[in-house]
Amino acid sequence: MSITSTALLTRATRLRRRTPPKGTDAGIFTCVSLTLLALFAIGPIILFFFNSVKTSNDYAASSLGLPKTWEWGNFLDAWIQGNIGAGLINSAVVVAGTAALTLVVSGCAAYALARLDIKGNRLFINYLLISSSLPTQMFLVPLFYMAVQARLYDTQIGLILIYVGLFSPFATLLLRSFMLTMPKELEEAARMDGANELGVLFRVVLPNALPGLLTVALVTALSAYNEFLFAVTFIQNSDLLPASTTFYSFQQGFTQNYPLVTAAGVIMIAPMLILFLFLQRRFISGLASSGLGG
C-alpha cells in the first residue's frame, strides 16, 4: 500500500469517528417522544394513587400535590364501605360470561364473513361497521323494554346478553380481519380429509386464530369490566351490582368522599392493569396482525 493510500485511509477513519452514525438524532427523538408519552399515560394513574391515600382535608387543599399524611386505611374503608369484594365477584361473572359468549358469536360470524361465500357479504360488513360506531346510549330504552318483557331485568344473564350484543360487532370485524391473513391451505386440506365447515372452524381455524381470539377476549373483558351505564340501569339488586357501580357507596349527602372514591378506583383498575401487563405482547401482536392496529 502506498503512502498516499495510507494517508487517505487514516483521514477517512478520523472522519468516520467524528461523524455520528446515521439515525442517532432520530433515535434520540424517538426515545424522548416515547418517554413523554409514557409519562402522559402513567401520570394520571400516579396522581390517582396519591389522591387515594390523602385525607379529606389534604384533598380539599390540593388535589394535585403529594399527600401530607399517608392514609393507607382508605383502601380498607373503601373495600368495606363499597362492598368491593362482592362487586369484584359479580364483575368476574359478568366479564367471563360476556367474553365467552362474544368469542362464540364473533368467531362463527367472522369465519362466515371471511371464508364462506355469503350473498350480501359486504352489506353485513357495512351493517357491523355502522352498528359498532353508533353510541350505545341509543339502545338503552329499547333494550330496557326487551329485558323487562323477557324477564331478564335485574339479572346477570340479562346484562351479559346485552354486553354480547354491544361488543360483538367490533369483535367480529376484528376477528374477520385476522382470519383474512390466515392461509387457506390448511382449511382445504381439512375438507379433503372429510371435515365439514364446523370441523374446519373448531379444529383448524380457531386454534390458528388464538392470538386474535385472545385480543378479542381482552378487549371485550376490559369493556365489560369498565361499563357503568348499562350495569347501573339493568341491575337494581345491590347483591348483583358489579364493581363499576360501587362509587355510589361513597356519596355523603350531596358531596362525595373523593379519597375513598379514588381508593376504590385504584382497587378496581388493579386487576385489569395486571392482566393487561401479563398479556400485552399477545394483545399487541394480535391487534397488529388483524390489520386494525395502524
Automatic annotation (TrEMBL):
GO terms for cellular component: plasma membrane. Keywords: Cell membrane, Membrane, Transmembrane, Transmembrane helix, Transport. GO terms for biological process: transmembrane transport. It is a multi-pass membrane protein. It comes from the Bacteria. It is found in: Cell membrane. Its main location: membrane. This is ABC transmembrane type-1 domain-containing protein. It comes from Candidatus Lumbricidiphila eiseniae. The lineage of its organism: Bacteria, Bacillati, Actinomycetota, Actinomycetes, Micrococcales.
